[in-house]
Each structure stands twice: as structure tokens, then as C-alpha cells.
Amino acid sequence: MPSNKERPGLTREAWITAAFEVLMKSGPRAVAVEPLARVLGATKGSFYWHFDNREELFRCALERWEEANTAEVIALIDRADDDPRVRARALIDLVTGSDFRRGELDMLVAADNPDIATALKRVTEARIDYVKRLLVAAGFTDDVARRRAFLAYSSYLGRMQLSYSVPETLPATSEELQLLADEFMVVLFGPG
Is-contact 109 116, C-beta < 8 A? Predict the structure, then answer.
């Protein structure tokens, strides 16, 4: 019989993927060993084969979130076009058109956890810096670009909160969503 490291679905990566999915769907508190073991059809022994404790797995899930929801998104948008306005619009369309995942909002609430606070700081800085770079590439000064990027990210966080608390306030149709994105581009870059 193969060891736990060799059995399909019981790799370290499978545990991290399952923890990441739970983190995004249900928030940080839901990342727990026993429920994940049930989802994976594994035992707690399998978990301890790959991780020293829940905190190690949780940090890996946070790293996966940072990579998948920030670094990979930035790389995807950068491949879209050379024009910073086109890239900004692609980013707006991506983040406003994607399904809301409550885990990110729950992480903001749980920022008193040092691991979450560290990951949130890195993600927030990377996201604001990326929008700032788009604005600088479009001709804005560093200071103006930083302020506008901060406002853009604050708007994203506000949309996330509205998605959770009063989803009926969000645009109901793709046409409304596109019109809102058009307006946001004007707010971000100015008319024209």
C-alpha cells in the first residue's frame, strides 16, 4: 500500500487547495483540519504527515490566495494590452464581473490575526501599487496616481461589502455593470 505522500488526493498540494477553497468560500475560521479531512476523504494523520499544525496550512492557504487573487490577476491583465487604460478596464471588468467570495471580506474582519494582517498588507500594497502603475503609465504623477489607486481599491472593498450585506444594490444586468465600469473609468482616468 502506498504511503500518504503517494496516494492520490492526499498530497500537501491537495490539502492547500482544499484549505484555499474553504478560505475563499467561508472565511478563515472555516479552515479547520477535521472538516478538510472529511472533504478530502483523508484522516488527521494524513494532515500531520504534510503539516506541523493548522497554522502552517493556513499560511499556505493565505499564500495561495495572494498568488491566485493578486499576482496571477496582475499577470493576466498585463498580458491584455500595452495601453494602461485598456488594462485598467480589463481589471475593472474582471473584478466587478467575478463572483463574490466572502472569504476575502472575512479576512478583513479577522485582520487582528498576525498571519492575516501580514498577507492583507502585502496584497493591499500590491493591488494599490498595480493600479498606481497603470495610472502613472497613463500620464498621472506619482502622488495623484497613488491617491486615485487608493480610491479605486477602496471602491473595490466597498463593492465587496455591498455584495455581502446588500447584494440587491449591485447592478442587476450586464448592461448596468458595463455602464458602471464606464463611469468608473471616467472617475479613475478623467473624461476622454
Answer: no
pLDDT category at 112 given cuts 50, 70, 90 is very high
Cα angle vertex 49, ends 45, 55, to 5°? 90
DSSP class of residue 100 equals P
pTM of the full predicted structure? 0.89
- Residue 23's alpha-carbon distances to 57, 83, 150, in angstroms, are 11, 34, 25
Grid coordinates of 132 = 498606481
The CA-atom distances, in angstroms, between 6 and each of 35, 40, 45, 78, 183 are: 22, 14, 14, 37, 52
- Domain boundary assignment for the chain: 1-59, 80-189
Which pLDDT score is estimated for 100?
65
CATH class of 1-59: mainly alpha
What is d(CA 46, CA 183) in angstroms, rounded to the nearest whole number? 51
Give the model confidence (pLDDT) of 40-50 as tens digits.
999 888 899 99
State which amino acid sits at residue 104: E
The residue among 17, 7, 32, 111 whose CA lies nearest residue 65 is: 17
